[in-house]
Structure formats: structure tokens, C-alpha cells
Design a protein that fits this description.
The protein contains seven helices and no strands. With about 170 residues, it is mostly helical.
């Protein structure tokens, strides 16, 4: 019962922050609401006892990516943003609603197709062990994720160094 209540609180925080992130007109507030969304997702990971994923969510996404967004926002010239006003056109709203409907129908189609396949097929319900997931995350072999993770970290480091170089006055 307590897990359900905590999940409901986290879901409200995530959905509310996501809506506010999209709806606010101030860019720093949007970055702050994005930070709340990422912390809420980390909370769900901790609720599911995926402590490694929760810690990675906080350190990589909530800590690193959000700080890069804020750093990039601070690099933008305030004179550029001062006259920036975005107006919603009816055609853009209609196109966005159409794309959203297509995406929803695609997800529903895949869900029902897989649900019907699982219902009528004899599918063994196997669970992947945490050791297998851990070996895949830190393995450098064919299906390992260490090298892509290191490439992404080097790319983020290059972005930070590039931002510092751009921000210099000289």
C-alpha cells in the first residue's frame, strides 16, 4: 500500500513537472522543471529497488545533462532572447495533434498485437537476472555497453570544453 502511495506521489510530481516544463515561458524554469522530472524518474527506480539505475539517473541525467542545459542557456545572449516571442499557429497545433494521434495509435497497435500474441502463444515467462544485466552493462564484449558509455562521456566532455571556449570573451 505504501509503494502505491509513493508511486502516485511520484507520478503526480513527474506529470506536473513535465507539463510545467513544456508550458512555461521562462527557459530557466523549464530547465528546473526538467530536473524535477528526472529526479521523479530516479525515485521510481528506487521504488522498484533498481538502486544502480536510480543512482545513474541522478548522476548522469539529473546532474550532468541538466547542468549542461543550464550552462548552454547561460551562454545564449540575453539580447537574443529578449525579443523572442513564440506564437502558436492553428496549423501547427493541428499538425502536432495529428502526429500525437498517430503516435498513440502506433503504441496502441503494438500493445494489442503483442498482448494477443502473448495470449495465444506458449511463451516462457523468463526473468533476466541482475548478474546478466550487470555483465552487459560493464562488459566490453560484443553485447557490452562500456565502450558506448565511454564514447558518450567523451562527447559530453568535448561539449563542455567547447562551451567554455565559446564563452570566452577573447
Amino acid at each position: 500500500m505504501a509503494n502505491t502511495i509513493v508511486f502516485a506521489i511520484l507520478a503526480v510530481v513527474i506529470l506536473g513537472s513535465a507539463v510545467m516544463c513544456v508550458m512555461t515561458k521562462r527557459i530557466m524554469r523549464a530547465a528546473t522543471f526538467l530536473l524535477f522530472v528526472l529526479f521523479g524518474i530516479a525515485g521510481i527506480y528506487f521504488l522498484l529497488d533498481y538502486t544502480f539505475l536510480g543512482a545513474a539517473q541522478i548522476s548522469v541525467y539529473a546532474g550532468g545533462v541538466t547542468m549542461i542545459y543550464i550552462f548552454a542557456i547561460q551562454l545564449v545572449n540575453k539580447q537574443t532572447l529578449r525579443g523572442f516571442v513564440e506564437r502558436m499557429k492553428g496549423s501547427r497545433v493541428a499538425f502536432g495533434a495529428f502526429v500525437t494521434l498517430i503516435g498513440f495509435l502506433t503504441v496502441a497497435l503494438v500493445f494489442f498485437k503483442n498482448h494477443l500474441i502473448n495470449r495465444f502463444a506458449e511463451v516462457a515467462d523468463t526473468e533476466v537476472s541482475m548478474k546478466t544485466i550487470g555483465d552487459a552493462l560493464v562488459g566490453a564484449g560484443r553485447h557490452g555497453y562500456v565502450l558506448p558509455f565511454e564514447f558518450i562521456s567523451l562527447f559530453l566532455l568535448a561539449c563542455i570544453i567547447g562551451g567554455i571556449v565559446i564563452s570566452r570573451k577573447e
